[in-house]
Specification:
Helix content of chain B: 25-40%
Structural class of chain A: alpha/beta
Structural class of chain B: alpha+beta
CATH topology of chain B: Sufe protein. Chain: A
Strand content of chain A: 15-25%
Largest sheet of chain A: 7 strands, mixed
Shape of chain A: globular
CATH class of chain B: Alpha Beta
Largest interface: A-B, 18 and 22 residues
CATH superfamily of the largest domain in chain A: Type I PLP-dependent aspartate aminotransferase-like (Major domain)
Strand order of the largest sheet of chain A: 4-10-9-8-7-5-6
Bound molecules: pyridoxal-5'-phosphate
Oligomer: heterodimer
Number of strands of chain B: 4
Amino acid sequence: MSTAEVPMAFNAEAVRAQFPILSREVHGKPLVYLDNAASTQKPQVVIDALDDYYSRLNANVHRGVHRLSQEATDAYEAGRKSVARLLGVDDDRQVLFTRGTTEALNLVAFSWGLANLGKGDEIVLSGMEHHSNIVPWQLVAQRTGAVIRVIPIGDDGALVPGAAAEIIGPRTKLLAVTHVSNALGTINPVRELADLAHAQGAVVVVDGAQAAPHASIDVAALGADFYALSGHKVYAPTGIGALYGRAELLEAMPPWQGGGEMIRSVSFEKSTYAPIPAKFEAGTPHIAGAVGLGTAIDWLLDLGVDAVAAHEDALLRYATEQLTALPGLRMIGTAPHKAGVASFVVDGAHPHDIGTFLDMAGVAIRTGHHCAQPVMTRFGIPATARASFAAYNTRADVDALIKALARVIEVFSR
Amino acid sequence: MSELMELYQEVILDHGRRPRNFGPLEGATHHARGYNPLCGDNFTMHIALDGDTISDVRFEGEGCAISTASASLLTERLKGAHVDVVEPLFTAVHELVTGGEPSEDVELDKLEIFVGVGNFPMRVKCATLPWHTLRAALKGDEEATTE
Ligand SMILES: Cc1ncc(COP(=O)(O)O)c(C=O)c1O
């Protein structure tokens, strides 16, 4: 997301070589993987870390006095420290492991939300939220009588200027907003929105699923009270993710799930809870996943998040230029600040048909509503085709995309 | 012929672009909406039943080339047909698009062109959504999904 020039040091080919899956073929064609906003591929170091975990360390965490349990616990906690580093957090008790962004957002909704929201309180969302940052709030609104209000999106896919200031008001108790939109690529002015919310005493929840792979993040500078991310979108395994929460808030929140690990003492009359983060990590966690996530984040930080972001930004600009030049193609999401995502529609060719044509050319993109149906409704379209970029993508990938799309246009405009 | 061109045969592209029997149907006796939440395909089938005869059938909505062509060819085929042909024909189409062997007793005719779908498991629901919608309408249901 930095607008800095691409440093000469960034070598996408060398990065690419670290991803074994990228050398496979699909339908007899070299794989061109442009579905990174859905899930990224994994570098060899992450695959090795999982292998090493199960080959040398596997045991339950925080439970045994034996050596393996200690080593597994250390590896798991090292993963937490890596997430804290990625998010610019000093006190890593504020980092909870979850299954991913969806679970992280549900945790905030069902723990903080149920405890703090009441009738007539307002939950403010943006019009470009992923379903996982809409539905949990609806569920909680139904139970508490809170009301959902939405900051609208303009034609370019950015929030309508000034709209947030009108919608966020004295009744606002919570603002939940995505840092980067998965359907449009828009980067939201999180700090500005957070300042508006904080001025009303509201709590700010940021969906970082799409931002974590593309931006250096500092949750304090962003004004995020909570920040959610998914491991599988930052080169780590599926089934693991994280939630940052300000310690004060986490400490005051009731537990969400009960079970082992999250307690201090249990009797049939009453249980007392462990301090954070354990209070929110009931049951045996995805230890290998946490190890993989830590490894992936260390790898990404070594590569340099700013250098990766600059590389992806250059690719996105190149792709946008090339796409816009194709006849009958229209970009959906043209906000001035974007990261990683090129969403588009083509006259006469449904996104689903585009997806099949591209797949046969070895090019993997996503087609559909991207779990953001309100965005599709806003633009009056059923779906888009979406190419999304990661550190290992190159101009050659974009060229393959454009070539395959030219063929689609040829067939469907006949 | 490549698998891709077998899927997107000229007739399919043609019906996808210029669907026949497209639009509302005055005097319709049965309607149903079919929706595929995965890709957003969304069709409404309108049927005018005269006794046991489908005197007219039209559709509205939007979807990909495969689903639109399927709806279009279905309406062409069933206009004027006895309702009893629907089930065997659906079964045969379903067999065809899932790569099976349709019964020889059913004349698929033009619907044969959907054979290419058999190589694309992800696209089977595109071809079958209009059929599910039609069958829902005939049963008196208002909604059909591919789930
Ligand atoms: C912006 C955004 N939020 C939330 C999610 C949900 O992430 P997960 O499915 O990993 O929980 C996604 C993933 O598609 C996303 O792009």
